[in-house]
Design goal:
Elements: H1 2-25, H2 33-42, E1 46-48, E2 51-53, H3 63-78, H4 83-95, H5 126-136, H6 140-160, E3 183-185, H7 186-203, H8 209-226, E4 227-228, E5 233-234, E6 237-239, H9 265-281, H10 289-305, E7 331-333, E8 336-338, H11 349-364, H12 370-387, E9 389-391, E10 397-399, E11 402-403, H13 420-425, E12 431-432, H14 436-449
Antiparallel strand pairs: 1-2, 3-6, 4-5, 7-8, 9-10, 11-12
Length: 452
């Protein structure tokens, strides 16, 4: 009997050993592109408007670092076994937040939410997932902090942010920044509206239709004034007072009076993504849901029209190909010339990634027709991998060919003219590698591609 037991024991051990060998022989699943980019640059080693960040955990409050943090957090949601992702985002949040959640500080200890600066708000989108997760873990103190911080941002926007005044076109629209009075930029819709919408969805009163009206107003206003039906694109920005010195870049006459002069890819990318993100949170029963859905579909159709057929991605200036260059003469402003050069238009990474994200998410949510737009998105994603993503010998990924930054004015920045010369040759525009805007948008696009 003892001999039988010993024999059985040896058999069991052998079986376990064989199973163990089989398991060891099985290939370890490869990490996805989203995970690889998180580990290559999402946790650190990226740029925020040319400012190098070696660690997400210790990076200061900024819309670029917030975009990266949000993308890392969404990757953790998809792959929750990667606990280091969550820990890094939580550390990033805690690095700028006081113990009550009532004050978000910058790297110097001052208020990170500058008066009427819409770029300071979107990093707060991470608070909603952090709130839910800490509540699930029983950490009520941190959950309260994150909810308080999200509420602080929403209230600053809803109640304190400067708006275009009654009596002007676009009354009620949020200023892009206090230094850009009466101006709305496409970028601003991404910076302010999604966090406003997510707060309403998570914490708002279901009967509060007025806040959803306010969110919808921002899109309806900027679309009314910036959409060019012939080109099927939106101009980068619009001023309700184009004659003002800070709006020197605006068209002064014609059907698009007040608009900037070009269709900048990343500006449209922020706008496209904002529409999808807001519609995800907005009650379908709201009176403006159909209007925002129609705007989304107009944007999607226009961008599909201007997708580069050969590469599958998009150019920095959407209506041109690489035969368009700076004119070599530059722009005359105040008796001086700026943006002199002959640099060509180029395929741009961050916009191509955010377009891909918005198409894929719009299809997944049923907001965009699958048969029409999934092929556009899949071609775009394959184009992103081929055109912009580079693999090092050690397996680390880099993402190249991103516009570092771009803006319009104000009067103290006369080189920011919004012309073709500016977007191609401007001294503050330039090309960047591993820019956080491209890193974050690539991660978001990859997450959507991985669940299509």
């Amino acid at each position: 009997m003892k001999q039988h037991v010993r024999s059985l024991g040896r058999s069991l051990l052998l079986a376990v050993a064989v199973v163990g060998l089989a398991a060891c022989d099985e290939p370890v699943p490869e990490k996805t592109y989203a995970q690889r980019m998180v580990e290559s640059h999402g946790l650190g080693d990226f740029y925020c408007n040319r400012h190098y960040q070696d660690s997400l955990s210790h990076t200061g409050w900024d819309y670029v670092s917030g975009l990266v943090a949000g993308a890392v957090l969404q990757t953790w949601c998809r792959y929750p076994e990667q606990t280091a992702y969550y820990d890094a985002v939580k550390a990033f949040a805690d690095n700028s937040l006081d113990e009550t959640g009532s004050f978000i500080h910058n790297a110097k200890g001052g208020d990170a939410l500058r008066p009427s600066n819409i770029d300071d708000l979107p990093a707060g989108n991470i608070y909603f997932e952090l709130y839910r997760e800490e509540l699930r873990r029983g950490n009520k103190a941190d959950a309260r902090r994150y909810r308080a911080a999200a509420t602080l941002i929403r209230n600053r926007l809803k109640f304190n942010h400067a708006r275009i005044a009654e009596g002007l076109p676009g009354a009620g629209g949020f200023f892009h920044k206090a230094v850009y009075p009466n101006q709305m930029w496409l970028d601003g819709l991404f910076m302010g509206s999604p966090i406003y919408a997510r707060w309403q969805q998570a914490f708002g009163d279901e009967a509060d239709s007025e806040s959803w009206d306010d969110i919808a107003l921002q899109f309806k206003t900027i679309h009314r004034y910036t959409y060019d039906a012939e080109k099927q694109l939106n101009y980068h920005a619009w001023s309700a007072t184009p004659e003002a010195p800070d709006s020197f870049w605006a068209q002064q006459e014609g059907p698009h009076r007040g608009c900037s002069r070009e269709f900048w890819a990343r500006g449209m990318g922020w706008y496209f993504a904002a529409l999808v993100d807001v519609l995800e949170a907005m009650p379908p029963t709201h009176a403006d849901y159909a209007a925002l859905t129609e705007i989304l579909r107009q944007v999607a159709a226009g961008l599909a029209r201007w997708q580069d057929d050969a590469s599958g991605v998009w150019f920095q200036l959407l209506q041109y190909d690489d035969t368009m260059t700076g004119d070599g003469k530059g722009d005359a402003v105040g008796g001086k010339r700026y943006n002199i050069g002959t640099a060509p238009n180029y395929l741009e990474a961050s916009a191509s990634c955010i377009f891909t994200y918005a198409y894929l998410k719009g299809v997944r949510l049923g907001l965009l027709d699958r048969a029409t737009y999934l092929p556009v998105a899949e071609k775009a994603y394959e184009g992103v991998l081929k055109t912009f993503v580079r693999e090092r010998a050690d397996g680390k990924l880099d993402i190249v060919q991103s516009c570092a930054s771009a803006g319009l004015g104000p009067s103290k920045s006369p080189s920011r003219t919004g012309t073709t010369n500016y977007y191609l040759c401007g001294s503050d525009v330039g090309l960047a590698e591993n820019e956080g805007k491209a890193v974050g948008c690539f991660i978001l696009a990859s997450l959507e591609y991985e669940q299509r």
